Amino acid sequence: MRYYKAMTVISEEDFVQSVADALQYISYYHPPDFVRALATAFEAEESPAARDAIAQILTNSRLCALGHRPICQDTGMVVALVEVGDGVRITGTRSLQDLVDEGVRRAYRDPANPLRASIVADPAGERRNTGDNTPAVVHGRWARGDTVRVALFAKGGGSENKARLAMLNPADDVVAWVAETVAGLGAGWCPPGVLGLGIGGSAEQALILAKEALLEPVDLHELKARGPRDHLEELRLAIHERVNALGIGAQGLGGRVTVVDVKIRDWPTHAASKPVALVPNCAANRHIEFTLDGSGPARFAPPDLDLWPDIQWRPDAQARRVDLRHITREEIAAWRPGERLLLSGPLLTARDAAHKRLVDLIERGEPLPVELAERFIYYVGPVDPVGDEVIGPAGPTTATRMDRFTEPLLARGLLGTIGKAERGQEAINAIRRHRAVYLIAVGGAAYLVAQAVHQARVVAFPELGMEAIYELEVKDMPVTVAVDTQGRSLHREGPQTWRVPVETLRR
To answer: Does domain 320-494 match CATH 3.20.130.10?
Structure first.
């Protein structure tokens, strides 16, 4: 006689609520291994600018853990890897896609901690925001067993945009390709972070392997201490050393620590092929795994607050205080790359969609809804506020996306812009031509930056949601001069200072 084990029954509600709870959890809690890695990076970093950036990220991380507010204003595109055991039955009739989407919808619309909806439909056309951050990207597969295993990422656009795939020749050097690729990524992925690599399989599988690799614990220091056990661990060490030797540093400011770990997964591939995919995880580092076994929704224990190092970021006493109400072109001409500023006064905000509308109005000769002369624009799409907040987490977005709009706005008298990461040559030329400046705030410190905002109101294009133009009143908002009126760039000069020649590295 054969005996059959009873099926594990998992309710749709338990699945949905587990996804929602997990996404809320990773919006404000860093993984403990990553916090420890950042603390180690802070101690190892010699570059003052990069060290200050890591201090802001760590301070922001603890504030978010205490306040249950998002680490970054870009609360991510949800990617779900779902493995369903063959001994499992999920009640109801909804698909895995529908179940994950309902969990995303519930998490992102949670009134206690609303998360920013960033997903747009019709990506090659209208690009209309779906309003609830759905649909998620769902990868499902069957497995032996009687549980459902779920891995979730909330992947910000800055880091996801830097994913790369190469179909290398079998004899090509993976370490050299990664180093060359990371050198060309810029700082839009918000280092310091973790690199995930997938090697082998097919083109699409290499990318999934790279993303799965990011789920593994950050343990590079333990690996260095005990030494590599196989070829992949040798690759991890070699890539870690080579990438950090680039001198990119935190936020691209120049420094010793660009990546805190390199994770690799591989798969057999065709004899003529060597697919290699690179997926960086930014300083927000949002991912989590959980298992459902039919006993109820997953539970997520909060980390011990003693996990965070005793690092309390404070504004630099030597920082230049700037009154935005009385700023002049003569004053900004004295600023130099790397100089720290504390801004007080009114700021405008704008992102991609608002920039396009402003430039379209300029090209048609129509009046603008806001005056740009003698003003600064901050590239940000904030999270909605809760309680007595003036604004939700409001960190910078990647500035290069606004490069093609920079010239016409500076021509209208704009004094400068604020974002994250480097500017392209087109924007630098415009900045130099108009004797303007570009400043950076720290990506990954959104809740900390929001503490400087004392008033906020929508002044144009309210129908754009988080991409509407706001006017913010800030007090001592910390920024760093990245491009001065002469076109000198901190993101070029900083890494050059800290770069280590390849020939001096350990062979």
So the answer is: yes
